[in-house]
Amino acid sequence: MADTAPTSRTATSLLPPEPEAAGVGPTSAPEGAPEGRAQQDDPLARARTLLAAHPVADGFNGLARALHSLPWYDIELGESALDTDLPRLRAGGVGAQFWSLHTAHPAPRGADDDTDADDCAVGGTLERIDRVQALVRSHSEGFLIARTAEDAADARSRGRVASFLGPAPAAAIGDSLGTLRALRDLGVHSLTLAGARWTRDGRGLTRFGVEVVREMNRCGMLVDLSGATEETTYAVLAAAKAPVLFAHSGARALTDHPANVPDDVLAALGAARGLCMVGFAADRTGPRLADVADHLDHVRALAGPHAVGLSGGYDTGRPHPDGLPDAAAYPHLIAELLTRGWPDADIALLTWGNVQRVLREAEFTARALSRRRGPSTARIDELDQPIRPAMLAAESRATKPAAAATETGA
Question: What is the CATH number of the domain that holds 238?
Fold first, then answer.
């Protein structure tokens, strides 16, 4: 059971308010002052100052699943059984978090078990939504549910971690656009498309898959392409009207993992103003902090500084690189990037600015599309199986008399 003991912490002990001017931190020493020179000589101190002004908006955290296996936990004061708790989020400078709604091991899909697998995914997703909402309610001094970019900024100004629901697995919508809208109404902010049968088993998008992307754009739900094939990625980029993202992926040129993104896709993602949020899983981005920095360098070089973000992937059960063991480690990664010559402006985009931009552009697109079209009533059996057995039988009966008449006349 979650810890509900009263706490003496106040909101002012969390994150500082957003500065009024871009690039101006809450505390800045005069140029040439001893404190200013000390920070320039100490990348870690400089990293913490930057994160105070531009906190991390992290793309993927598995805490909702991890809590399921714990009979008791203390998120407020610290929990050694987890990678994530409020003290470490504060120490890491995290200002917004996307809470994954994925299950640990998705049920296998086959010709005879699609319905059962979808029902399992829908139920599991609802349970994780409930768990995140309960976590936020029981730790309201630390977290605040967010649905929009403005909500994230508001949470930051109030010293809370903005909490976004998602990504959810594609199976969670049960091949139903009505279920997709219901999840969006519950606050789900992103959906991972990989593994859905309407992605043609990774070979693109079916007609229903295109309609899913369009409806997500209309609802303001972000498309997550993590784990998607190149064919599916390019099909989504062609159909999407809003920016898409890879919620936890690295560069395949550096680590040949199927969840990582090839160079040509990175370039196309940057051109489409999308976002690749580089994860910290050792099997995807390497065993050292410097390896993760290499992936960030690579994505920034190919897609552009406007198209790269951070995704710790904590509490997912995956091993993390040395130097990035938990949610408190972000300042050390930022310090490494500073020693590599990243300018402050690019750091600000990496940690906070790019996620805010993608959220705002998705919201703008949703408002524009909602004025032009209503909710889609398309069904997968209508779009992806237009020739049904009953239609085939009717056509067969209609052609038999004509054929017989032709033979008689001959």
Answer: 3.20.20.140
Q: Is 359 helix (H, G, I), strand (E, B) or coil?
A: helix
Q: How confident is the model at residue 302 (pLDDT cuts 50, 70, 90)?
A: very high
- Average of pLDDT values for 197-225? 94
Q: Do the beta carbons of residue 163 and residue 29 sit within 8 Å?
A: no
pLDDT tens-digit profile of 349-397?
999 999 999 999 999 999 999 999 999 999 999 999 754 444 434 444 5
Distances (CA, A) of 318 to 287, 321, 367, 392: 12, 10, 38, 49
Residue 120: pLDDT band with limits 50, 70, 90: confident
Instruction: Please report, for residues 10, 33, 97, 266, 348, the alpha-carbon distance to residue 159 in angstroms, rounded to integers and kept in the order given.
Output: 9, 29, 14, 34, 18
DSSP β-bridge partners for residue 251: 261
> How far is the CA of 329 from the CAs of 98, 118, 127, 310, in angstroms?
17, 36, 29, 12
Q: Token pair of 161, please?
A: 């971690």
> Is residue 197 a part of any domain in this protein?
yes
The reply to whether 401 falls in a domain is no
Buried b / exposed e over 331-346, threshold 16 CB at 10 Å, is: bbbbbbbbeeebeeeb
